[in-house]
Amino acid sequence: xxxxxxxxxxxxxxxxxxxxxxxxxxxxxxxxxxxxxxxxxxxxxxxxxxxxxxxxxxxxxxxxxxxxxxxxxxxxxxxxxxxxxxxxxxxxxxxxxxxxxxxxxxxxxxxxxxxxxxxxxxxxxxxxxxxxxxxxxxxxxxxxxxxxxxxxxxxxxxxxxxxxxxxxxxxxxxxxxxxxxxxxxxxxxxxxxxxxxxxxxxxxxxxxxxxxxxxxxxxxxxxxxxxxxxxxxxxxxxxxxxxxxxxxxxxxxxxxxxxxxxxxxxxxxxxxxxxxxxxxxxxxxxxxxxxxxxxxxxxxxxx
Length: 303
Description:
14 strands, alpha/beta
């Protein structure tokens, strides 16, 4: 599996008895990209992540992280990863500082104590007194912030983040996005699961959607925007003329006394050329929300 990819997955399958959680999954994540791994609860996202981290073994197929086979060289693969789980299982009687010390040692980067850890904590508004408190006294948001610090503190080449902004307030979400931007600039790779599609649209280069354990979409965010149908409202100074034959990719949705409503897939140029010479007063173009673009891929009846 010497592909040069940061994550390489080939034919990955995981069965639990009669249930197939992941089915024949093939996927590459390139070095330096922020990759969104999406799907409804139970789609197979967490199972895939657990296989990558060698928490569970696949029924068939292989996976590697930065060239390390996730099963045959699991320790080396995990050493390259900063992991933020969706459910944080911190020991409640430990302090925040103790958690960071232990996870730093587990990552083989105990020397990270100091400037970088303090900078991360400051950016996420975790004070020294907060880190001296026991986890049982932490709010959900504080636990999530501590989890982010422990994942980022060793500055690993790969970050695997499961629902990273769950429980964060909007201000801390912005701080997290700034952290992502920083690691991207340094060439780190981020593999993240999220239910917040506006977040995925904002931070990810590419996305994959998995449904019932099967990959149903793999695309760049930019390509999804390009293929999404836009809604165009054409407003006329006088009564709208009879609609002409529209260019390929354009569909008349509605015709009213002084306007047309057109759905456009692809570039707007051909439609604008067709409107030349008509008494057009205004043109309104509405982008389809990202959530609407992705919604069909979440449905179980999608073919």
